[in-house]
C-alpha cells in the first residue's frame, strides 16, 4: 500500500500558526500564566484590537490558546501545559550568545514560566530541594523522595490534590536563561502558588517578572538558602 505523506502530525499548520511575530509575541505574553483580554494583547504586541482578534482566532483554531468568558469580557490563556512547554522550548532554542545577557535582569532573576517559578529564583529553589534530598533526578522528570513527601506537606502543599491533576507531576523544564532544568509540572505549579500565597513574590505589571518581597527574602533564605 502506498504511504501518504500527511499521515503524521500536522507540523506545517502548527508552524504557520506560530511563525508570525505578532502571534508568537502573544504566546510569550500569555506565558505569564494569566488570562488576558484581546485589548491587552493588542497593546502588548503593538497592533490594533481588530488585528489582535484575527491573530487570536488563528491561535485558537490551532488549539494553542483557549478563550473563556469572564463577565462581559472574553479572556485568553495558553491552552495546555504542553503548549506552554513548547513555547518555553522555542525560547530556549532562540537564545543565542549575547541574547541571554541582553535579557532584562528582572526576568533573569525571577519570573513565571507559565505557572511555575523560573529564572535564578526557580533554579535556586530546585537546587535546594535536590541538595536536601527532597527531589531526585530522573530522565525526563524529578522524583519526590520520602523526605520530599514530608517536606512538601509541611510546607502547606496537598500532594494528594496535586497528584489528581491530569498532567505531568514533576516535569523537568529547561530554563532558557539559566540553561538548566527547574521544577515544573503540577508540583512546580503548586509550589509557585504556595510561594505566591505566602506573599513572598509579587507580579510585575505587564511582565513575567516577579518581585521578591522583604518577607519573601527572609522566607526563601530560611527554607531554601535563596536570596
Automatic annotation (TrEMBL):
GO molecular function: cadmium ion sensor activity; DNA binding; DNA-binding transcription factor activity; lead ion binding
Domain annotation HTH arsR-type: ranges: 3-98
Residue ranges the record marks as coiled coil: none
Pfam families xrefs: HTH_5
Family annotation (InterPro entries): ArsR-like_HTH (IPR011991), HTH_ArsR_DNA-bd_dom (IPR001845), HTH_Metal-responsive_Reg (IPR052543), WH-like_DNA-bd_sf (IPR036388), WH_DNA-bd_sf (IPR036390)
GO biological process, one term: response to lead ion
Name this polypeptide is given: Transcriptional regulator2C ArsR family
Gene name tied to this protein: ydfF
Amino acid at each position: 500500500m502506498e504511504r501518504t505523506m500527511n499521515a503524521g502530525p500536522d507540523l506545517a499548520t502548527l508552524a504557520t500558526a506560530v511563525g508570525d511575530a505578532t502571534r508568537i509575541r502573544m504566546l510569550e505574553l500569555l506565558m505569564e500564566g494569566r488570562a488576558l483580554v484581546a485589548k491587552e494583547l493588542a497593546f502588548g504586541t503593538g497592533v490594533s484590537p481588530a488585528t489582535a482578534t484575527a491573530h487570536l482566532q488563528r491561535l485558537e483554531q490551532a488549539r494553542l490558546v483557549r478563550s473563556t468568558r469572564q463577565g462581559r469580557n472574553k479572556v485568553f490563556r495558553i491552552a495546555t501545559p504542553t503548549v506552554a512547554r513548547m513555547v518555553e522550548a522555542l525560547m530556549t532554542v532562540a537564545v543565542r550568545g549575547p541574547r541571554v545577557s541582553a535579557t532584562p535582569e528582572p526576568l533573569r532573576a525571577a519570573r513565571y514560566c507559565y505557572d511555575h517559578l523560573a529564572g535564578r529564583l526557580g533554579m535556586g529553589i530546585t537546587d535546594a530541594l535536590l541538595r536536601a534530598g527532597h527531589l531526585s533526578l530522573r530522565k525526563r522528570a524529578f522524583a519526590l523522595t520520602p523526605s520530599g513527601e514530608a517536606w512538601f506537606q509541611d510546607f502547606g502543599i496537598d500532594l494528594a490534590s496535586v497528584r489528581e491533576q491530569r498532567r505531568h507531576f514533576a516535569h523537568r523544564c529547561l530554563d532558557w536563561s539559566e540553561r538548566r532544568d527547574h521544577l515544573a509540572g503540577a508540583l512546580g505549579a503548586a509550589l509557585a502558588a504556595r510561594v505566591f500565597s505566602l506573599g513572598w513574590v509579587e507580579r510585575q505589571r505587564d511582565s513575567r517578572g516577579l518581585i521578591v518581597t522583604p518577607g519573601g527574602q527572609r522566607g526563601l533564605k530560611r527554607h531554601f538558602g535563596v536570596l
